[in-house]
Design brief:
Blueprint lengths: L15 H4 L8 E6 L2 E6 L2 E6 L11 E4 L6 H7 L4 E2 L7 E4 L5 H13 L12 H11 L1
Antiparallel strand pairs: 1-2, 2-3, 3-4, 4-6, 5-6
Length: 136
């Protein structure tokens, strides 16, 4: 009889159901970031899905990656959004909100429709390296 090796057990991200509607989009890709998953549309970081820390409400929800100039209009449309306590440049939908699922699905729909309020372009790797060298 042979031993069968199945490999490591992978944890399924609890918010994976949210980015699944984006998976068929040719402009979509998902990347690991800070222990969570970053959803990109056409090269722009649109949504960030933290891997929820057990007792930390700051990381139990969905981050909307947007510029501060879009905060007011997004909050007006989705009152459940608030500036993230640690990353205030982004908006946050806390998992504890009663409308979490409905609002999160609508945010994914906005990303899929390429709403111009969603998405930021990150700094290139070379720009980050130059900034680090200046600090040294």
């Amino acid at each position: 009889m042979r031993d069968i090796h199945f490999g490591k057990i992978k944890k399924v991200h609890p918010y994976a159901w949210l980015w699944e509607p984006l998976e068929g989009d040719p402009g979509f890709f998902l990347r690991a970031m800070f222990g969570g998953r970053a959803a990109y549309i056409d090269g722009k970081l649109a949504l960030y899905f933290p891997f929820p820390a057990d007792n930390d409400p700051d990381w139990r929800g969905v981050c909307v990656c947007t510029g501060r100039e879009h905060h007011a209009s997004l909050i007006a449309e989705f009152p459940a959004l608030e500036p993230h306590r640690i990353l205030p440049k982004w908006l946050f939908l806390p998992e504890e909100n009663d409308r979490f699922e409905a609002v999160a699905e609508k945010l994914v729909s906005l990303a899929k429709r390429r709403d111009p309020r969603l998405g930021v372009i990150g700094k290139s790797k070379s720009a980050r390296q130059k900034r680090r060298q200046k600090r040294s």
